[in-house]
Write a structure and sequence with these properties.
The protein is an alpha+beta fold. It contains nine helices and 14 strands. It folds into two domains: 3-161, Beta-Lactamase (2-Layer Sandwich); 173-327, Reverse transcriptase/Diguanylate cyclase domain (Alpha-Beta Plaits, 2-Layer Sandwich). The chain is 42% helix and 23% strand. The strands form four sheets. It has a five-stranded antiparallel sheet. It has a five-stranded mixed sheet with strand order 9-10-8-13-14, with helices on both faces. A two-stranded antiparallel ribbon has the order 4-5. The radius of gyration is 26 Å and the shape is elongated.
Length: 328
Amino acid sequence: MGYSKRIGAVLEEAELYPLCVAALDGVVRADLVGLVVLDRASGAYVVRAEKGSVGAVGQTIRPGEGPAGRAIEGRTMVRVAPYERDAFPTAVRDRNAADAYGEAVGIPLLREETVIGSLTVARVDPAAAFNDLELEALAVLADEIALAVANALLHGEVAEFAIHDALTGLHNRRYFDTALHQLFATRLRLPAEHRPAVAAVLFDLDQFGEVNLRHGHQVGDEVLRVFGAILRRRLRDSDLVARYGGEEFVAILSGATREDAYRVADEIRRQLADAPLAGIDGRPLRVTVSAGCAGAEESDGTGAALVRLADLALLMAKRSGRNAVVAA
């Protein structure tokens, strides 16, 4: 099949998925084609590309629903004839162009014993059932698509790990340094009077080394995960948030002054102090954090200088007795 090389050469998911549907439709004519792929973060099976429906992409298909879900659940090819609207998966029931199909086929995408998705093909004409040769071609192409999808998912995971901290899910130091440089390079091209406010907060978990010594690294890792989750919930998508190193975290708050940063940091400090953590013995464990805040107007205009100023404020917070926030 001429499509296999094209599919196998594509590693970007956004480019691959429509290509898979086009390849399938080019080998076996169909009125409805759908590609469902496992979302590893949520464990859900999500429509990633389609032909013959409107708005199905992004919808979740539950195992057991429709040919796609039945193929996922049974791990084998499924044929449904006739395939009518009341048998469509709930999430796409009102999104297919046709009310009924003469036949639909669901094929699982299997890779190393894992069902990473499924394919659906259907024809409206009841007299145009899929013949044995077409079913064989679909099975072969499903294997090729499964390999291509698995490679794209792996590529995506590697790219994700390159810019994210695996433990907390926040951006890592490497990504932060690059993004901060780009942010301030753009900012400094603007006239001074048009530069938006921006502030930095540098957090450091108090006496975190003792937590690891007394309770072990598993408890320490859980503390880091909990604090990372607090940062994700409290801060905005427009903010640049990263694990800076070890028990240090940093946030660049867009459109925020030093005073704004102080209020946000103090709220985060209180949330961690109240977080329901447990030590190795199961008893409640109270962990605190100190923070230093700075605004771009107080620095010399570079991102590095802003972070240094926040670091100085953090040192003052530590020296004041910890579990404190200081604005430089």
